């Protein structure tokens, strides 16, 4: 048998990996999120880390701003599906979500081998959570549990294998529940396991995707989680298209406006941002490190530059402080600026909005875990007292007012960005 050339083998491997990824994320044919939706991100301590939930709110706020989606995260460390079922009437339903994402199973599995009792307790609670939300008219994106890291979980690969088998079975139960309930399903478990396997093959076994403790992902694994949910919530990924005619004209798609164009120099004002990434390319605590193994930019983050009437064989594209050379064929077909220029004119504006979202989500944890429980305890201990009820109502109003102020700060930070693209022919 003739040996396949190495370059062709690499292409085949890449195509197979892409096909596997596509099969693992069951994206909706139509976006789940619609204009004016209220999105609740629900889960255990992995959600309470407020990383993947922040990435999700970043995306719907800046990448799909016309939807005007309201977001809240309700993570609670150590929680199980039965635990959330016990608090959803007080913590979730009053917020009137129209869409919710769930991510349980990590604690439900008990950190041991699978038993039928584990699965029965877990799926029984999940069914009731979904049913309670379904009665309100809400859509539930049922997320499977993620996975534990194959090296850092208890520093024992065998223990990781056993527990991942458990989590995989819980994920299968979630998949069936989604099918039975007519709800979308997000397969975090299998996608994280696949991305982890390929990233470790490149970076080494100690490169963790599911966190240094093997359970709580750093930025890399959290981006995989956000990607999985977002491809269900808002599939499509078109951030915008800029078309530059070297004869002098330029055009931009919705969300962007051409302010001036001359030759290959175009000034644009954008009210829609590409998703931006920070940090070094390799450490696990950088979301950038996982991009070679996760098609985030390809599936969710396409800001395309098309250049027409380029006379030479190649041209240098300057965007912000960075520049890169592309062939005429690449530019005619279109290059993804968001993928090619990770540092770009949107990076700092994106960071400011992300910081505001981080402050809002941190306050949401306080509201749910501290303030909410304190008010309930006051009323429980002082009984049916009109003065107490009035005082609690006033305090809740103040707490809600601060939350709205933090949400307003997010909206204020999200401002149009003016930026310039220069296309210069090279000999």
The tally of strands reads 14
- Relevant CATH superfamily of the largest domain: SGNH hydrolase
Strands of the widest sheet, in order across it, are 2-1-3-4-5
As residue ranges, the low-confidence spans are 1-20, 22-28
Q: How many distinct folded domains?
A: 2
Shape field: globular
End-to-end CA span:
44 Å
CATH class of the largest domain: Alpha Beta
Major beta sheet summary? 5 strands, parallel
Helix and strand run: HEHHEHEHEHEHHEEEEHEEEHEHHHE
Number of helices: 13
Q: What does the average pLDDT come to?
A: 93
Structural class: alpha/beta
Radius of gyration: 24 Å
CATH level 3 topology of the largest domain: Rossmann fold
CATH A-level architecture of the largest domain:
3-Layer(aba) Sandwich
3D architecture notes:
The protein is α/β, with parallel strands linked by helices and 427 residues long. It has 2 domains: 6-233, 3-Layer(aba) Sandwich (Rossmann fold); 237-427, no CATH class. It contains 13 helices and 14 strands. The chain has helices spanning 6-24, 45-48, 52-63, 81-91, 116-135, 157-181, 188-203, 219-233, 296-300, 328-333, 337-340, 347-382, 386-413, and strands spanning 38-43, 70-75, 99-103, 139-143, 185-186, 238-245, 250-252, 256-262, 265-270, 302-308, 314-319, 322-327, 335-336, 417-426. The strands form 3 sheets. A 5-stranded parallel beta sheet has the order 2-1-3-4-5, sandwiched between helices. It has a 5-stranded antiparallel beta sheet with strand order 8-9-14-11-12. The radius of gyration is 24 Å and the shape is globular. It starts with 5 loop residues before the first helix and ends with a strand.
